[in-house]
Amino acid sequence: MKNNKILIIIAAALLALFIYFIINADYNLKFNKINFNDNNVVLNQSVPKYMDTIVLAGLHVLNCKNTKVMIKKMPAYDMAGMEIKAYIIKYDFGYIIWIKDMSKMEALLVLSHELVHLKQHEDKRLIIINNDIIWDKDMVYKSDEIPDYNLRPWEIEAFDNQNYIKNEIENTLFN
């Protein structure tokens, strides 16, 4: 009986250590120091502060030049019951990426997805005018005709490319 209690205590301690290291694993990941010469400007008004580094690396990976991005903490946002972690809006001056707080590793994927949308805007493949959306220069969606989120061609493309962009950003920042 006494041996079982000792084994349970040891197992609980090991489990606690394992959980601690999992939770803190990506906090300790350090980015390489890199100077990008793309004339991109990223202003980070969110927490944590590493979001701007991820976006700068992503802009570099996507070969974006002279692009201005502001990152802001996302207010409560509900899209038909879907949990949204980030979204991007194009303005005349550049872009705002609204994002929730998240781990560094999750931010790499989420921001990669949003950067695909930025590139779609830059290439004029995704154009939003008021509540109308022009996709790939010929498909026009009125605000009341926009397909479900997972059927939107610009979202399909972003999901298809986010892992590639994430991997390229990781190669830039960690290798």
Give a short overview.
With 175 residues, the chain is of the alpha/beta class. It is built from four helices and nine strands; from the N terminus they run αβαβββββαβββα.
Order of helices and strands: HEHEEEEEHEEEH
- Residue runs with pLDDT of under 50 for 5 or more positions: none
What is the second-level CATH architecture of the largest domain? 3-Layer(aba) Sandwich
What name does CATH use for the topology of the largest domain? Collagenase (Catalytic Domain)
Give the amount of beta strand, in percent: 15-25%
Task: Give the domain tally.
Answer: 2
CATH top level of the largest domain is Alpha Beta
What would your notes on this structure say?
The chain is of the alpha/beta class and 175 residues long. It folds into two domains: 1-30; 31-174, Collagenase (Catalytic Domain) (3-Layer(aba) Sandwich). Helices cover 43% and strands 22% of the residues. A hairpin with a 3-residue loop joins strand 8 (132-135) and strand 9. Helix 2 (51-61) crosses helix 3 and helix 2 packs across helix 4.
Keywords:
175 residues, alpha/beta, Collagenase (Catalytic Domain), 2 domains, 4-stranded mixed beta sheet, 4 helices, 43% helix, 22% strand
SSE layout:
Elements: H1 2-24, E1 41-45, H2 51-61, E2 68-73, E3 78-79, E4 82-83, E5 86-91, E6 94-99, H3 104-122, E7 126-129, E8 132-135, E9 139-141, H4 153-174
